[in-house]
Amino acid sequence: MCWRTISRAVSLAPVVASVLLTVSTVAAVAADGDAVMRVESQVFKGSDEQAISRSLALFTDDVVWDLLELPDAEGEMQLAEIVLHDPLRERTVLVDPRRGVKVEVDKLKLDRLRVSLATWARGAEDPIIRWAASSQVKEGIHHDDDDESTLVLTGPPGVTGPKVRYRVQYEKASSREAAERYQQFADVSLLLKALVHPGGLPPFPRMAINSRLVDERAIPSGVQLALSGELPLPVPLAGDQVLRSEHHTHPQLLAEDRRRISEASVRVAEAASVSLEVYANPEGDASTDVATSRSAERSVTR
After folding, report:
1. What angle is formed at CA 107 by the lines to CA 104 and CA 112, rounded to 5 degrees?
2. DSSP class of residue 233?
3. Which residues of 91-109 are buried (b: 16+ CB within 10 A; e: fewer)?
4. Strand stretches in 23-129, DSSP E
5. Distances (CA, A) of 41 to 51, 91, 202, 275, 282
6. Residue 33: which pLDDT band, with cuts at 50, 70 and 90?
7. Which pLDDT value is given to residue 100?
8. At what angle do helices 176-196 and 3-12 cross, to 10 degrees?
9. What is the pTM of this model?
10. Contact, 149 vs 170, CB < 8 A?
């Protein structure tokens, strides 16, 4: 059974509603609460200077709004996806504003995906896929010899052939609560990518790094995902493959952020509900490009 088959099986199962070089800056807002943050991101492939995506994650007191922009035919960034992370209600709502549709994914569905994907990966023939779900990942995370604020993960160890390398720079969070909240948001984003746009490297190495960052009471300030070999990243790259992202910080939510949240709330309310299968499989080549860029964005920024 392949990853895509697992993802589709989980998405269609009956569910009881219980529900890269990255340079990043994230800051907590004391006036609004220790875990209120804003994170701006841009994603690039290789050494390209033109971003393939841009996103803004707005952490309010109870939910996170994740606004993804992708370039249109003229290269101008346009809003391509809104993701509402609502941990109190154990749900995530994805909205495609171009098509005016939305889908709700509950926590149970993502929990099932995590278990099924890990089981599949441990039995995979590819050593990178097998390594990604093994205990070697957690054991292999270490500080860079020249930079104590950088974590490095390379694998699989002791195997000739393709290698995966994460390099994650970080900054101390304002509180452990802020670090834990960012981890929760990042992990859900990775699982959503695996569910909606399956393929590439399983999310477990990055999730292990996210967990280690909580131990450091930290939030990523730099991530690079590099691959030497044949395992495809979410976007096609020539030779050794690298995805990187740049993030920028502001110490508080801006008035413009509040306006964006209000507009996003209206879009969520007005969008038509569709099945996950319909949401994940829009028709047309342009929609395929959008899905690929969304997948790449989630892979390096989270």
Report:
1. 110
2. P
3. bbbbbbbbbebbbbbbbbb
4. 37-45, 53-59, 64-71, 77-86, 91-96, 101-106
5. 10, 23, 22, 29, 25
6. low
7. 97
8. 100
9. 0.83
10. yes
